[in-house]
Amino acid sequence: MNKDISAVLKNNIEYLNSELNTDKNFDIICRTLKIADRQAGFYFIDGFVKDDIMEKVLEFFYGIKAEEMAKDMHEFSHQFLPYVEVDILNNWNAILTNILSGVLCLFIDGYDSCLAIDCRTYPMRSVEEPEKDKTLRGSRDGFVETVVFNTALIRRRIRSPKLSVEMLQVGKSSRTDVVVCSMDDRVDTQFLERMKERINSIQVDSLTMNQESLAECLYHRKWFNPFPKLKHTERPDTAASALLEGNIIILVDNSPSAMILPTSIFDIVEEADDYYFPPVTGTYLRLSRFAITLMTYLLTPLFLLLMQNPEWIPQSFAFIMVKDQVNIPILAQFLILELAIDGLRLAALNTPSMLTTPLSVIAALVLGEFSVNSGWFNAEVMLYMAFVAVSNYSQASFELGYALKFMRIITLILTALFNLFGFVAGVLITILSIALNRTLSGKSYLYPLIPFNGKQLFRRIFRIKLGSQSGRES
Questions:
Q1: From CA 62, how far away is CA 36, in angstroms rounded?
Q2: Dist. CA 43–CA 31, nearest whole Å
Q3: Which is more confident, 222 or 101?
Q4: Biggest alpha carbon distance in the chain?
Q5: What residue intervals traverse the membrane (predicted)?
Q6: Which residue has the higher pLDDT, 7 or 466?
Q7: In the sheet where 86-89 sits, what is the strand order?
Q8: What is the pLDDT of residue 355?
Q9: Which of 95-99, 193-197, 227-231, 325-329 comes out lowest in average pLDDT?
């Protein structure tokens, strides 16, 4: 690839045809034409080029006279190309990457450089509200699979010259566009440079799974700690808010979400609805979500502990006791239902949208009513697991939901085996998994609780007026 670009058009065309296999790839087009008295050729990928813009450009080319031709490509682009997004390329690696990215590349006989004309159009879906990150109020737009449109959605919200949007490429074969966004006056510059160095040093063939592949390359986390290091969002307003708080946003082409880092446990449980309502309502929503998240972890292990020690139950709460005969151990019931809930979730994911609601109703009626009547499950167990299943949707992070699920199963098993000591051990394992976790910047996962910062902790727990807030520490 060290071959120099030739001033002879025929040599360049032969080289590109060989590299791009234009005889096999029907969508890579080589079009030859005459500009003034010189032969020219341009390469593009069918489906990416805007036809109306190309027609306008070609009209100017056909109107050029021989005596008007420029002495080099740089002068030619200034005199005869009335288009904004153009670049002069002198490197074959850059030329091949641009062609395969959909940029039109023009070669003219007698010029030893290439003119890249970015008149791409992207096949994409409309900018609509994300299915997962919904809000009761607020904007209804969301990220799409095209990284250029995602950066535009952020620029629309932050009109500051301090906003930096840098593009990098990852993957030997895929050359996936990765965009790093930050606020120059608020970001931790050392952490930002470290992240860019890590991205540039990634040695992979391609980012097969987009953001997840990049995340695994950025941080080789210990497999036994399931708590997420990153927060994912499909909402531009959430990404913009994180940038203004000093965080870094990473966008990956072909992925309709953004990665926010560094991220603590308090960042993950926050949601946009907290800020789209008045402070009192926002505080209530936030505290409710904290409480429900805690209950999804503790409810079933605590119930199992009390069933193993019925003498601990006060007389006023005797109604929580299992009244029917227990045919299957309660632990086995909980574990079967944990698996069944994931099975139903996967079934719903692969069910056509028009059938999702009726099938969900049928599943709830059949599996709920008949599993109790048949003696497989007790009604109390079904009730508590139904609460856990519904409560998992009270927060948007799938990763946090599954982390709590794994911790809940471990606590259930330890409680069944070792009674109270097992319950305490399970809770301690969960606490230590969170406390010993670190953000990507190396700071505490529990900041501002550990290390303690009262002012910041108050703001993380309570929703205060916007005018009273200042930039957060990460």
A1: 7
A2: 7
A3: 101
A4: 103
A5: 290-308, 328-347, 383-402, 409-436
A6: 7
A7: 28-35, 38-45, 104-108, 114-117, 86-89
A8: 61
A9: 325-329
- Please give the DSSP secondary-structure letter assigned to residue 252: E
Please say whether the beta carbons of 131 and 118 come within 8 A.
no
Tokens of 383: 């009730």
Distance CA 323, CA 26 (A): 70
Which range among 77-91, 365-379, 405-419 shows the weakest confidence by mean pLDDT? 365-379
C-alpha 224: how far from chain center: 22
**pLDDT tens digits for 37-65?**
899 999 999 888 878 888 888 888 888 88
Burial readout 273-292 (b: 16 or more C-beta within 10 A, e: otherwise) = bbbbbeeeebbebbeebeeb
Which token pair is 375?
Answer: 């003696």
Assign 3-state DSSP to the chain and report helix, strand, coil percentages, each to 5. Answer: 50, 15, 35
Of the candidate ranges 159-168, 217-226, 285-294, 352-361, the one whose mean pLDDT is the lowest: 352-361
Q: Which of 50, 17, 49, 48 lies closest to 32 in space, CA to CA?
A: 17
Give the torsion through C-alpha atoms of 418, 422, 423, 424, to 10 deg. Answer: 140
Cα–Cα distance, 318 to 312 (Å, whole number): 10
CA-closest candidate to residue 46, choices 22, 66, 77, 75:
22
Q: Enumerate residues 6+ apart whose C-beta is below 8 A from 365.
A: none
Q: Which segments of 122-261 does DSSP mark as H helices, in order?
A: 147-157, 189-200, 211-218, 236-244
Amino acid at 395: Q
Which CA distances in Å does 183 have to 159, 195, 447? 11, 15, 21
Distance CA 447, CA 461 (A): 12
Task: Look at residues 111, 108, 115, 107 and name the one whose alpha carbon lies nearest to residue 7.
Answer: 111
**Rounded distance between C-alpha atoms, residue 275 and residue 288, angstroms:** 15
pLDDT at 366: 65
d(CA 278, CA 285): 11
The proportion of the chain whose per-residue pLDDT surpasses 70, expressed as a percent, equals 93
User: Residue 52 has what DSSP assignment?
Assistant: H
User: Which residue shows structure tokens 């531009």?
Assistant: 236
Whether residue 322 contacts residue 378, with contact meaning beta carbons closer than 8 Å, is answered with yes
pLDDT in tens, 191-213: 999 999 999 999 999 888 888 88
- Residue 130 CA to residue 239 CA, distance in Å, equals 13
